[in-house]
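NusG domain II-containing protein (Candidatus Butyricicoccus avistercoris), 127 aa
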Amino acid sequence: MKLLKTLKKGDFVIFAIILIMAIICLVPFISTQTDQLICEISQDNKIIHKIILNKGYKDKITIETQNGNSVICIEDNSVWFESSDCPDQVCVHTGKLTHAGQIAVCLPNKVIVKLIGQENQIDAIAT
């Protein structure tokens, strides 16, 4: 109670402004709108599949190369290498890709899987 008596009206205004600014900064992070993800699969630097990821969508794609096969699984909003005939298995151990900008690569088979988000956010503001 003693603290409330020592605070002046201007202190409450400053506190309110700081609180409003903090809420404005948090809005993009707590937004419920999810960006639609696009899975782009390339082989030998050529795009061979472009798939829009949706809830409930499932697919298994087998890519045949000179060095063996790569099996890519797609389920809901994630994609991953299920198996590959490459010796090191780095692509398989990468795990599930779930966010825009993530990428998994099988170098021996020359297969690239990446997730792209649709551009609906502002990247920068010009002044």
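The chain has three helices and seven strands. The domain at 37-117 is CATH 2.60.320.10 (mini-chromosome maintenance (MCM) complex, domain 2). ok done for today
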